[in-house]
């Protein structure tokens, strides 16, 4: 399910030594009609549905997904998770409806869609093939780039980064050889990213496509062994975001990563660490207004993010 992607995404932004993210997260895109503003009840229902689905209680989650939709909650991840819940409950027509909504909202993880075992019950339906076509079209848009060769190189580097992190994570970061391989890949990727930035400037969406730009951010985010380089990249990413060529969410995560490395309070609350066996946010500046700053870059509330982190720590799927 897409919630697996969310779990991996959460791991990416821990400020401890273990960082991982999905190699392909769903992208969001404007729908053809403005979405209604979600009610407080809709937000609460969505959180509850997600928690139930993550614990395997898809039958209990499904009616809550429906009610969250009725209350105006619109989120590409929710659509996908609801589709998986419906498929697992044998509600094929409903699963395909949710998948259609996900595609309309910009879901772009084609390979994940085609291989997710939760969707096995609907995969042979002709309507599923039509959804795959729409999702593939979304993904193709993310690949449009002035420099496709550089885009492909960045994506290969990201895939190597992710494979190393999955291997280290599978061993709970207790395998010295896996940890060293991850470190060596980070060193090599950082060296190459320094060359790319020196030659091209920040890899923008226009230059390397949206997926390539995301990969570039991720590789810099994981350049923890060279904090000076991360700091060098920050104003470049800020400029790209201001020009519509970068992601505000990426900027928030990199900003927090740098601030935490410098021993300063983070600004957006993205960085967590383990305190007495519990994941808690690193200190946050002006914490009373953190949700406003998060909203400004497209992030959900701190409460929602914290709940996601706790579910991840508890072993949610």
What order do the SSEs take from the amino end to the carboxyl end, as H and E?
Answer: HHHHHHHHHHHHEEHH
Named CATH architecture of the largest domain: Alpha Horseshoe
Structural class: mainly alpha
CATH-defined topology of the largest domain: Serine Threonine Protein Phosphatase 5, Tetratricopeptide repeat
Radius of gyration: 19 Å
> Main sheet, how many strands, which sense, barrel?
2 strands, antiparallel
Q: What is the overall silhouette?
A: globular
Residue share in helices? 55-70%
Q: Which parts are unreliable, with pLDDT below 50 for 5 consecutive residues or more?
A: 2-32
Overall residue-averaged pLDDT value: 88
Distance between the termini: 8 Å
Could you give the count of β-strands? 2
Read across the widest sheet, the strand sequence of neighbours is: 1-2
Give the class-level CATH name of the largest domain. Mainly Alpha
Output the number of helix runs: 14
Taken as a percent bin, the fraction of beta residues is under 5%
The CATH homologous superfamily of the largest domain is named Tetratricopeptide repeat domain
């Amino acid at each position: 399910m897409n919630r697996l992607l969310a779990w991996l995404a959460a791991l990416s932004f821990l400020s401890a030594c273990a960082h991982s993210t999905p190699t392909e997260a769903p992208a969001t895109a404007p729908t053809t009609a403005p979405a209604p503003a979600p009610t407080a009840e809709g937000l609460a229902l969505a959180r509850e549905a997600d928690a139930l689905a993550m614990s395997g209680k898809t039958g209990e989650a499904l009616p809550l997904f429906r009610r969250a939709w009725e209350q105006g909650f619109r989120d590409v991840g929710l659509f996908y998770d609801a589709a998986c819940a419906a498929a697992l409950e044998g509600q094929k027509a409903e699963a395909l409806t949710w998948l259609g909504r996900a595609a309309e909202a910009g879901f772009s993880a084609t390979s994940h869609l085609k291989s997710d075992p939760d969707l096995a019950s609907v995969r042979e339906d002709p309507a599923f093939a039509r959804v795959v076509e729409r999702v593939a079209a979304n993904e193709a848009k993310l690949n449009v780039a002035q420099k496709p060769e550089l885009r492909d190189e960045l994506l290969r580097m990201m895939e190597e980064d992710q494979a190393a992190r999955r291997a280290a994570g599978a061993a709970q970061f207790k395998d010295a050889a896996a940890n060293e391989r991850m470190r060596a890949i980070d060193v090599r990727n950082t060296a190459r990213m320094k060359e790319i930035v020196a030659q091209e400037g920040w890899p923008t969406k226009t230059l390397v496509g949206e997926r390539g730009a995301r990969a570039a951010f991720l590789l810099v985010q994981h350049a923890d062994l060279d904090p000076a380089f991360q700091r060098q990249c920050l104003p470049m990413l800020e400029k790209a975001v201001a020009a519509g060529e970068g992601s505000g969410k990426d900027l928030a995560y990199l900003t927090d990563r740098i601030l935490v490395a410098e021993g300063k309070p983070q600004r957006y609350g993205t960085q967590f660490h383990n305190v007495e066996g519990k994941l808690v946010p690193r200190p946050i500046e002006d914490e009373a207004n953190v949700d406003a700053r998060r909203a400004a870059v497209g992030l959900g509330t701190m409460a929602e993010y914290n709940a996601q982190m706790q579910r991840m720590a508890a072993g949610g799927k």
